[in-house]
Specification:
Layout: H1 9-22, H2 35-42, H3 46-58, E1 62-65, E2 69-72, H4 76-102, H5 107-121
Antiparallel strand pairs: 1-2
Protein name: GntR family transcriptional regulator
InterPro entries: Tscrpt_reg_HTH_GntR (IPR000524), WH-like_DNA-bd_sf (IPR036388), WH_DNA-bd_sf (IPR036390)
Keywords: DNA-binding, Transcription, Transcription regulation
């Protein structure tokens, strides 16, 4: 995983975990990798992964079964969608609109590129 400098690493890891849930790789009630396993996989300090898991637990996306590990919450998918949708609408979308306005990109061009993106990245994987 390539980390960006403009966002805390634990939040980037939270996005990684969330994306695995959004893509259905980890379903509700599935056990997710242990703190140690994920730290090794992502080559980060286990304390960073623990901070990520605490953050996701506070968001009610995952929960801890003491002595067993962390699991995707029954409504974890809905929580992720709500949280990320709100973030996107408040932060990313205004910047996107600003860019397409300044660059004079039409909504038709955006639609075409969006459909191409979905076809190339998601429809082939199903």
């Amino acid at each position: 995983m390539e980390f960006r400098n403009n966002e805390a690493i634990y939040l980037q890891i939270a996005s990684y975990v969330s994306e695995n849930i959004l893509l259905g790789k980890w379903a509700p009630e599935d056990k997710i990798p242990s703190v140690r396993e994920l730290a090794v996989e992502l080559e980060v300090n286990p304390n960073t992964v623990m901070r990520t898991y605490e953050f996701l637990q506070n968001q009610e996306v995952i929960y801890n079964k003491r002595g067993i590990g962390f699991f995707v919450a029954p409504d974890g998918l809905k929580k992720i969608i709500a949280y990320r949708k709100l973030n996107f609408l408040q932060q990313d979308l205004p910047e996107f609109f600003r860019s397409i306005y300044l660059l004079e990109i039409s909504l038709e061009e955006v639609q075409e590129k969006y459909e191409q993106f979905i076809t190339e990245n998601y429809e082939l994987n199903q």
